[in-house]
Amino acid sequence: MSATPPNHRAARRSRRVLAAAAGLATVGALVAALPAGAAAGDRHGPAHGHGRTVDVQLLSFNDLHGNLEPPAGSAGNVSEIQHDGTVKSIPAGGVEYLATSLREARKGNPYSVTAAAGDLVGASPLLSGLFHDEPTIEALNKLDLDVTGVGNHEFDEGAVELARLQNGGCHPTDGCYEEGKEFEGADFPYLAANVTKKSTGKPILKPYTVWKKNGVRIGFIGVTLEGTPDIVSANGIKGLEFHDEVETVNKYARELDRQGVKSIVALIHEGGSPASTSYNYDCDSPGAGDGISGPIADIAKNITPRVDALVTGHTHQAYVCTIPDPSGKPRMVTSASSYGKLYTDTTLTYDRRTKDIVRTSVKSANHVVSRDQPKAQDMTDLITRWNELAAPIANRPQGFISADINGRGATTPEKPLGDLIADAQLEGLAPADKGGAQLALMNPGGIRSDLVFAASGSEGDGVVTYGEAFTVQPFTNMMNVVDLTGAQLITALQQQVSGPNEESPKILQVSEGFTYTLDLTKTGADRIVVDSVKLNGEPIDPSKSYRVAMNEFLAGGGDGFSVLKEHTNKLVGASDLDVFNAYLAANSSADAPIAPPKADRITVVQ
Q: The 5'-Nucleotidase C-terminal domain covers which part of the protein (predicted)?
């Protein structure tokens, strides 16, 4: 299973290299930028390093989520610890800069492979999401990505759509977006080792691939988190099964080993939580791997020593840790935040005699994708082309705000933008003919960005465009209004902080009038102070039925809220985005913009 693409895809890559050369001053500049002796079509340079060992550069990133343009607001910043201990916020990200960073990093490294750990598409801003993420796949092809594992968001539109992104072809409903052009699909393999069809038991895509260069062979195994069914819509994964990450990686590591592939990297869409959110935090302080917790720590400790490094994602955190494998040997575990704000540069020393990685020589670091560097012209051209197609929809004004309203960038359990979205859902679904909702619940993971006061284009400060609203709520989930008892509502609140959500709570955003106390000094379900749960000042009656608005993802039990599946009397309404845009239009104007909600509905006891 070589990572080398078919001949027609190799030819496409060669054409892109020539096209990229147009952005340089002369063809001679392109030649000068290549290592001496580089063969045509060999972007990694000449056959250097024929001694006992050779250094292989592994460049990696994760959780791009279709962010081709620089992410807006706090979502577009990374934190950096300074020499004096203070923390500096640095604007970062955008594929124009990511392309420049990766291309600069590859210079002088004839053995270089680029890999990713999932969620490259899905929950994308309108520029990519409006076109079913075809622009992102095109950009990743231009980035010369060699391989990626799948993440949970690769299943947002289902396995059939994922296969189209891999293999190409125009969208079955929307068709082709540009006259005379058919979507060509990904030049790189998507790996899905632990996602199988129930009917056959076989993986839906390749479980692994082998990158080869001048006798050097490195195997890549790709898996998503086993809990993917809990965090994606059920319709997208019908007929699929998701298996244990450790068992799956170990299985295919044995298979690769039998084939003589001794150097192996696992691409795992599951992650951890470092003790600091600064990208340059020392994750190995005071000891190896001591600075990280969460699922990836346990996974790393149990994956076979045959695997030499783990590239991870999902939690949108930045870390470079050496977590001991089951034999006690240190092993590199990395994650590069999200949205293309960082990339990881790892040196893997390959021993030609043993065909294995010399673990004691592995070095790794995260690097900021700074916006102070030149933009890659081919990426600028790509963004311009797709923006022209999206402009009639993207630039349409929807409403007005008086200041930033933080969602993804909020650091508190209750998010101002979460309150605004919940209020919009309540207002839109409260009329009797729309469902008669009495309250609304919004999952925090569905809030993908902030609403930023500063203009993103020519619309003017404080104007919320359709594109900006889409970036906040890109899933187009249909709204549901259902009956839940008071007891079920209380259980839902308890499931925020217990069961699968105990280690990493998922605090639902609530509409105006619904209040309660969250006591973080306690553990599990006891964190919800039951007698504090009220609707419009009245205590919730466990035996009474309430009409509750929520998106279809939550109504299906997503994010570990299994009790919400027990609803009755469901009415399906408009999409969450349509409801949100209608609220902005009805409740704001240039003279009376919406102010950030106070976020005081959930009383938090620390």
A: 405-566
